[in-house]
Amino acid sequence: MYEEIDRYVLRLIEQSSPERTAWNVEKLRAGKPANWNYIDGCMMTALLSMTEITGDRRYFDFAESFIDSFVNGDGTIRTYKPEGHALDDVNEGRVLFPLYEQTGKEKYKKAAAFLRQQLDAQPRTKEGSFWHKQIYPNQVWLDGVYMAQPFAALYEKYFGGGDYSDIFRQVQTVHEKMRDGKTGLYYHGYDASKTAFWCDKETGLSANFWLRAIGWFSVALADLLEILPDSEGRDGVQAIFQRLMEDVSAFADPETGMYWQVVDQPGREGNYLESSGSSMIAYAMLKGARLGALSAEFAAKGKKTFDGLVNTCMTFQDGSLCLDHICLVAGLGPEDNRRRDGSYAYYISEPVVQNDAKGVAPFLLCYTEVKRLG
């Protein structure tokens, strides 16, 4: 099966170009050309990891040619819209660091500085957390931690002065404001102004625990632990990560090891075992165990989830592998889109698709961690 997975990824690459990627289902459905976005960014991160673990340069070569096509000589980024203040658009920048290291192209270093300047200008909540986007004022979403903080940490590591204090504060704020004390799970969103139509007017929190949001947060913490130097701040991130992995593992499906779209409501009508968030949590557990942040039992739990994904969500279609059970997208608002209200009914209403990078990329990252187990 592992060889089939390798061929599956190479087939997706063969079907893709910088103008059109086979794994960005949102763009394909809309008939829009590729742009600088977190979906392709997640896939580039996965492709670089595939190169590292397999030694096959085809993954690296595609990722480098893709990023090269968007980064201008002065470090500005084609299609990037600074006025949107979208944390999502920072995420793809994390691949600039290994690309700069391996190619020596100065424009990658300049592009990293350009994105760092974007974060410097990012609006913040009263607690000091980044707004998720300009159109989501005063709102913190769990996925925003993944979109911004590993990039910020990498910038400090490669080109900054080694000041990680803002990263520590923002992770701690999410922990304090968005964690549910009863389940240990984290809510999808928090509105510091407590005015958004979807939030609780006393807590500012959204109503439910969306799997992929918790998955993004889990991956962010695992990736930060690999980047951050030993310090009291890193110890705090590790403690939050350890507690989350313990708490979320209680909600795993006993048979497959996978997790439900609305995490704490297994078996409820319409709920389903979702592959992108399951891959993210499995990856975080496997990586956390490899880094020594988690006990070996979490590597076994992550491997069980990965096996569940392979057995439940991977099928052969037209002679090739296909990854299924991927929630296409979910969000909160904005004001003129009240369907996205954070309710249970909303989360189970979003389309479920195949081969979208929001599922494929974390599945591949999980796969590379399984390969590291030997």
What does this molecule look like?
With 374 residues, this protein is mainly α. The protein has a single domain, classed as Glycosyltransferase (Alpha/alpha barrel). It contains 14 helices and 6 strands. The protein has helices at 2-14, 25-30, 38-54, 57-70, 96-103, 106-120, 142-158, 165-178, 211-227, 232-249, 275-291, 296-313, 344-347, 357-373, and strands at 139-141, 189-191, 314-317, 320-323, 326-327, 352-353. A two-stranded antiparallel ribbon has the order 1-2. The chain has a two-stranded antiparallel ribbon with strand order 3-4. Strand 3 (314-317) and strand 4 form a beta hairpin. Helix 3 packs parallel to helix 14 and helix 12 packs across helix 14. The mean pLDDT is 97.
